[in-house]
Automatic annotation (TrEMBL):
The lineage of its organism: Eukaryota, Metazoa, Chordata, Craniata, Vertebrata. The chain crosses the membrane at residues 12-32. CDD domains: CYP4B-like (cd20678). Keywords: Endoplasmic reticulum, Heme, Iron, Membrane, Metal-binding, Monooxygenase, Oxidoreductase, Transmembrane, Transmembrane helix. Its cofactor is heme. It is found in: Endoplasmic reticulum membrane. This is Cytochrome P450 family 4 subfamily A member 11. The keyword Methyltransferase does not apply.
Length: 510
């Protein structure tokens, strides 16, 4: 009996042959991928050919033009040069039509196109598929289920809770400025708006503004937002496997885990509270339920297909959107008033005549401060909390000027560019509250701080009430001035932020 054994030479020859075949297969795959990307680029070039734009690099697109600190200034240059809309190439095989014309906005927001899956899916590990990311019938079901949580009967008692949270923050500011009048306000405001949403929508007792766990949550959200923008702009991070193996990907996972720990704790505490028979009956007798109670009762009664995963996604979504966008709005409004003392003083006089010392502020008061409301809206025009949202066209679209796009193209509704469009708002960089005076005539889609159409912000009335409460109570307590040495640098992240914070000088009013 003989045994055949491969000689070392034949073995090496076999390995070499396998490597040769593998190399050929890899080369073929790379060529096929290159051909696919080339054909996609040619299709995209043809799709947006009716919309001129500055020259772009075949691989890096317009990324080199959009330096981190200059992105908003670049938007404004494009708005002035290219009417209505302009293609922005993120890289060679990805383009988004940036829209900043009210007629264009009206057409897109009047449709039911889904969110742009290409970018928004990067948020899913953090906020899951709640109202922000859902599309189609599932989105409609969740929206219809949650709309009662924002009925005015529910919102009315929240004004007192909002005021309590604002006063805690203002008390803290009084202590801090006793040592130095210069203060970075955005971090304090983020904690205050988180405190408010925890009380109003999630039945939280007490204040979270001094809780280290809440501060960890705020930092985690800040990290996730920064990492999201970094990933969107990096060609190599588009692949999930590659991204999660990178240091940024692992950092993203840790930040998401911290955010989830916070929301899981909120859900667990509320569930435990509802297990008490007396509390459960009290909640059942309420004609209108709070946000979290609506979700928990839908889950308990099995009246919908709401899973535990869906529940957590909605909580994660609203925990973020309910505090972060509002914090951005309040921070920039106070900055705008600080840089325009004449308008600040006029608002203060209006509020003083209405509220006195501000010991009591009610729902009805919030509709009796017209000039303050005009200033708030003008600040939201200059500094929209959500700079842009994305859509993916589910069918072809034709705009009022006759230009069209095919199905599948990504559209970016750029609210910042719209609000700074000189053809829509003359002298757009000037702070002019009279733009929003009663009876002023403007396009229905010229001012969109809360988006528009069927997918507008579900919490916009809640947010406007909170903005008014925060501004009114702050102006009654402090005189605000800008810090000339630390002017904010606006950055269009998921929400409009300042790269270096928002620094003000505060003087306590007697």
């Amino acid at each position: 009996m003989s045994v055949s054994v491969l000689s070392p030479t034949r073995l090496l020859g076999s390995i070499s042959g396998l490597l040769h075949v593998a190399s050929l297969l890899l080369l073929v795959l790379l060529l096929l991928k290159a051909a696919q990307l080339y054909l996609l680029r040619q299709w995209l070039l043809k799709a947006v050919q009716e919309f001129p734009s500055p020259p772009s690099h075949w691989l890096f697109g317009h990324n080199q033009e959009f330096q981190t600190d200059q992105e908003l200034q670049q938007f404004q240059k494009w708005v002035e040069k290219f009417p209505c809309a302009c293609p922005r190439w993120l890289w060679g095989s990805r383009v988004s039509l940036m829209v900043y014309d009210p007629d264009y906005m009206k057409v897109v927001l009047g449709r039911s196109d889904p969110k742009n899956h290409g970018s928004y899916r990067f948020l899913a590990p953090w906020i899951g598929y709640g109202l922000l990311l859902l599309n189609g019938q599932t989105w409609f079901q969740h929206r219809r289920m949650l709309t009662p949580a924002f009925h005015y009967d529910i919102l009315k008692p929240y004004v007192g809770l909002m005021a309590d949270s604002v006063r805690v923050m203002l008390d803290k500011w009084e202590e801090l400025i006793s040592q130095d009048s210069h203060l970075e306000i955005s971090e304090h405001i983020s904690l205050m708006t988180l405190d408010t949403i925890m009380k109003c929508a999630f039945s939280q007792k007490g204040s979270v503004q001094t809780d280290s766990k809440s501060q960890s949550y705020i930092q985690a959200i800040r990290d996730v937002k920064t990492l999201f923008i970094s990933r969107v702009r990096n060609f190599f991070y588009q692949n999930d496997i590659i991204y999660w193996l990178t240091p940024e990907g692992r950092w993203n996972q840790r930040a998401c885990q911290l955010a989830h720990q916070h929301t899981d704790r909120v859900i667990k505490l509320r569930k435990a509270h509802l297990q008490e028979e007396e509390e459960l009956e009290k909640v059942r007798r309420k004609r209108n339920l709070d946000f979290l109670d609506i979700l928990l009762f839908a889950r308990m009664k099995n009246e919908s297909s709401l899973s535990d995963k869906d529940l957590r996604a909605e909580v994660d979504t609203f925990m973020f959107e309910g505090h972060d966008t509002t914090a951005s709005g309040i921070s920039w409004i106070l900055y705008a008033l600080a840089t325009h003392p004449e308008h600040q003083q006029r608002c203060r006089k209006e509020i003083q005549s209405l509220l006195g010392d501000g010991a009591s502020i009610t729902w009805d008061h919030l509709d009796q401060m017209p000039y303050t409301t005009m200033c708030i809206k003008e600040a939201l025009r200059l500094y929209p909390p959500v700079p842009a949202v994305g859509r993916e066209l589910s069918k072809p679209i034709t705009f009022p000027d006759g230009r069209s796009l095919p199905r599948g193209i990504h559209v970016s509704l750029n609210f910042y560019a719209l609000h700074h469009n000189p053809k829509v708002w003359p002298n757009p960089e000037v702070f002019d509250p009279s733009r929003f005076a009663p009876g002023s005539d403007s396009h229905s889609h010229a001012f969109l701080p809360f988006s528009g159409g069927s997918r507008n912000c579900i919490g916009k009335h809640f947010a406007m009430k909170e903005l008014k409460v925060a501004v009114a109570l702050t102006l009654l307590r402090f005189e605000l001035a800008a810090d000339p040495l630390q002017a904010p640098i606006p950055l269009p992240n998921i929400v409009l932020e300042s790269k270096n914070g928002i620094h003000l000088k505060l003087r306590k009013l007697l």
